Amino acid sequence: MLSNESFNYINYIFIFLIIIQVGLLISITLMKSKEKSINWFTVISASCISIVVSGLLLIFLGYAADEINLDVNNYTYMTIAIIVLSVINSLNSYKSK
To answer: Where are the transmembrane segments (predicted)?
Structure first.
């Protein structure tokens, strides 16, 4: 049977993905045009991986939460935040390119 402790571990994964996206956003905005330490392909790859992982986790959480009648609204908001940050990072990186 599932317990609430397993949901705490999934929460850490979502927070880690958000930290990665915020770190990319900070590094892209502070990066000068001559210093190309992070290229557009890296940003797109990290964004796609973050979106896919958070989407799959949200789907699996939906199935698990249905079994134990748990509310998972905060995970939905975290997934939306990851998607928004990924889009902002991709556009910001493309603009600086």
So the answer is: 12-31, 38-63, 75-94
User: What is the pTM (predicted TM-score) of this model?
Assistant: 0.86
**What are the two backbone dihedrals, phi and then psi, of residue 55, each rounded to the nearest 5 degrees?**
-65, -45
Contact between 50 and 82 (Cβ < 8 Å): yes
Every domain of the chain and the residues it spans = 4-96
The residue written with tokens 């910001």 in the block is: 92
Distance, in Å, from the CA atom of 91 to the CA atom of 59, rounded to the nearest integer, reads 27
What would the pLDDT profile of 8-24 be if each residue is shown by its tens digit?
A: 888 899 999 999 999 99
Q: Are 77 and 16 in contact (CB under 8 A)?
A: no
